Amino acid sequence: MRQYTGNRVGLALVGLTLLGAGGYGWLRGRGLLFDLPRNAKVLPAEFARTLAADPWTLWLLAFAMLILAMLAVRWLLLSLGWGRRGAASGTGTAMLCVGLKGVDGLGRAGVRVADNGLRVALTCPSDADVGAVVTKLDQDIVGRIRREVRDDETPAVVRVHVRRQPAERR
């Protein structure tokens, strides 16, 4: 499973949980949900006595839930893309794609402009001549993108991902 698919599934689960909690709160606030009778047993008697005798267990549970909530919020923010550096550059991406016009099967290409430089990402097929692609990037294309987007002194990080060959069917 690709990372993006996992993030989307996780975001969908978080969204459904929040939607369910919000719907429950809304229905409960309008009085549309039934209330438990006073003599209903919500917790087992032994567990309730343990909680009443040792209140530190509730503090420990609350602290664990707080840590879990903070980790969930961090993951949620990173999944939404707040951890990415820089902004996508359509001009840089277009120049990258035009410069690599002769390479067949390019899957993904992108250029991001950050405060500390350029980030160029490229996905090649497994049968592409990676040496020629890297030479072309190094000699010609990255320099043009630098000049167009920023200046010649801007540092650039180029990430080339080569896809695996599909498994042979037997």
Describe the protein in words.
The protein is α+β, with helices and mostly antiparallel strands. It contains five helices and four strands; from the N terminus they run H-H-H-E-H-E-E-H-E. It has helices at 3-29, 45-53, 56-79, 90-99, 130-149, and strands at 87-88, 108-114, 117-124, 156-162. It has a four-stranded mixed sheet with strand order 1-2-3-4, with helices on one face. Helix 5 links the parallel strand 3 and strand 4 (156-162). Helix 4 packs antiparallel against helix 5 (130-149).
Helix and strand element order:
HHHEHEEHE
Looking at the structure, what is the overall shape? elongated
Give the terminus-to-terminus CA distance.
Answer: 22 Å
Radius of gyration: 27 Å
Question: What is the strand arrangement across the widest sheet?
Answer: 1-2-3-4
On the 0 to 100 scale, the average pLDDT is: 79
Structural class: alpha+beta
User: How many extended strands?
Assistant: 4
Number of helices: 5
* Strand proportion: 5-15%
Q: What are the segments in which pLDDT stays under 50 over at least 5 consecutive residues?
A: none
Report on the biggest sheet: 4 strands, mixed
Helix percent reads 40-55%
